[in-house]
Amino acid sequence: MCQRYGAAAADAAGTWERGCVQRRARRDIVETEAHGVSASVVPGISSALAVPASLNIPVTARGISESFWVVTGTTRSGEISRDIALAAQSSATVVILMGLNKIQDIMEQFGLHGKHDTPVAVIQNGTLPDQKNIIGKVSTIVGLTSQAHVGSPAIIIVGEVVNYAQALKEVVKEVIFQYQ
Q: With 0-12 CB in 10 A as exposed, 13-18 as middle and 19+ as buried, what is 5?
């Protein structure tokens, strides 16, 4: 049941773990307990914060972005969330969960508000060994994710804070060059 979302894991005893930012966690707890599997909520760090941090992307940074939105990209009906249009108007960092299948529509919303050059990161399988990172701009990220065959689960981060990931990439390249 939980595995279909790609965000759950079972321990050796068969206890399921799943993030709780999204409302469906309560539904999952009720369903798992109905099947005789113990379920509980353990406070932790949301993937909306942990996954960007894995690339050195803070969701806020003084003088760059004082706040952030966490938005569902795709609604239960399969449509783009109306909150995307509101978030696209903001100067805040926008973290989009479950939005990869609607990335073109999502980036169009940011483009409508003049943000074609705003940095974007798409992170597939965040914090896992097979994590894949794509960095571009609102105007280029759709093509880049397609070329790289990025799939779900993935998180989309839109905002100037994504530049911190680029800075880290440059430092790593410099360190590697020094030791060759």
A: middle
Host H or E run for residue 110: helix 103-112
Same structural domain for residues 82 and 139? yes
Same domain, 68 and 151: yes
Q: Flag whether 175 is in a domain.
A: no
At 127, give phi and psi (nearest 5°).
Answer: 70, 5
Q: CA 7, 167, 107, 78: dihedral to nearest 10 degrees? A: 0
Confidence of residue 78 (pLDDT cuts 50, 70, 90): very high
Q: Using CA atoms in the order 112, 113, 114, 115, what is the torsion angle rounded to 10 degrees?
A: -100
For 98, the token pair is 């479950």
What is the chain's length?
A: 180
Q: Are residues 107 and 18 in the same domain?
A: no
Q: Indicate whether 29 pLDDT > 90.
A: no
Of 2-16, 26-40, 134-148, which gets the smallest average pLDDT? Answer: 2-16
On whether residue 10 sits in a domain, the answer given is yes
pTM: 0.77
| Total structural domains within the chain | 2
Q: What is the pLDDT of residue 165?
A: 87
**Longest C-alpha distance within the chain, in Å?**
58
